[in-house]
Amino acid sequence: MDKYTAPNVKGLTANDTTIYAAGFIDLRLDGPVVIDSPAGAYGVIDDYWQCLVSEIGPFGPAKGKGGKFLVLPADYKGPVPKGYFAVRTATNRVMYPARGIVKEENVQAAVDTMSKIRIYPLMQAAKPPAPQFVLASGRALHSIPPASYQYWERVADIVNNETVEPRDRFFYEMLKPLGIEKDKPFQPNERQKKILTEAADVGFRMAQALSMAPRLETANAYPGTN
Fold first, then answer.
1. What is the mean pLDDT of the chain?
2. In angstroms, how far is the first alpha carbon of the chain from the final one?
3. What does DSSP say about strands 52-56 and 9-10: parallel, antiparallel, or unpaired?
4. Domain boundaries for CATH 2.60.40.1610 within the chain
5. Mean pLDDT across 23-44
6. Which entry of 7, 33, 50, 212 is 20 to 30 Å from 80 by CA?
């Protein structure tokens, strides 16, 4: 984002006083990946369940000075070269969202910091390729999970392309009667599609309602408020 986030960007937790950048990595394509994160970039490396792989910034291993992070697949057994902050992820796909903090209203300085980010496969570390940036300001972006039938297509994609965590086996069993099972095609008939579409729409509205008016007393973030 080479400008502040605008109303046409539907992003969870995004604010309009920060310059953002994001990279999405698929370790199945080229194996281990290097994220060269500059000083002044604050954020995280998250797996696809949005669980922390590594902090980026003053609280991470680079202590805010910037550095090269080497993201390794969970089953990687090869050598780990020196000179990297090596981190291991439980999922095949990884997210790297970063923030550039605007100081003294100097937006361009934050944009310049984000433009120093480099992401490339470890196999290309000797001669990293030139970076390619997509300037997203002005574009309509939508990062809210999809509702309707698309929701189930997204779930099926993740089930088929990610590892099964032991903690989630119970939920995977619940998905099988819906036709979502690892290494099997998701091909519901028209009747099933109609039911799944209605269920996703109702579930989306239930989540919104519970977010606005939680029924659990312990769900309040601050005393006396929702």
1. 90
2. 31
3. unpaired
4. 10-136
5. 94
6. 50
How is domain 10-136 classified at the architecture level of CATH?
Sandwich (2.60)
Sheet holding 67-72, edge to edge: 85-88, 67-72, 33-37, 118-121
Cβ proximity of 60 and 51 under 8 Å: no
What does the alpha-carbon distance between residue 179 and residue 155 come to, in Å, rounded to a whole number? 11
152 C-beta neighbours (distance < 10 Å), count:
22
Report which secondary-structure segment, H or E, holds 22: strand 18-26
CA distances from 61 to 74, 84, 132, 212 (A): 20, 10, 26, 37
Tokens of 42: 């604050």
Report pLDDT digits (tens) over 166-211: 888 999 999 999 999 999 999 999 999 999 999 999 999 998 898 8
Domain with residues 148-219, CATH architecture = Orthogonal Bundle (1.10)
Length of the chain: 226
Closest to 69 (Cα-Cα) out of 90, 84, 54: 84
